[in-house]
Design brief:
Length: about 80
């Protein structure tokens, strides 16, 4: 059984949405579709893009909360090493 997260039944995961978006782009770039079908695919692509953007924003917020609440700092490759 797979682990379900809040809203998982309503929205596919990020990777699946991205894969679908790439498929739509390939179809549209082919240039062989009628205008009505192209417009429908374009609308689906916009919805997928918005879903991906929302999922990325939520992930960013979670990372920021984890870093803040955990007392850890984001990795800074230019920061001096505390062990020196």
């Amino acid at each position: 059984m797979t682990r379900k997260t809040r809203g998982a039944a309503d929205a596919p995961d990020f990777e699946k949405s991205l894969q679908e978006l790439e498929g739509l782009i390939a179809k549209l770039e082919g240039g062989e579709l009628p205008l009505a079908e192209s417009l429908t695919l374009f609308e689906q692509g916009i919805a997928l893009t918005r879903r991906c953007h929302t999922q990325l924003a939520e992930a960013r917020q979670r990372v920021e909360l984890l870093l803040k609440d955990g007392g850890t700092k984001p990795f800074d490759p230019d920061a001096p090493d505390a062990d020196d």
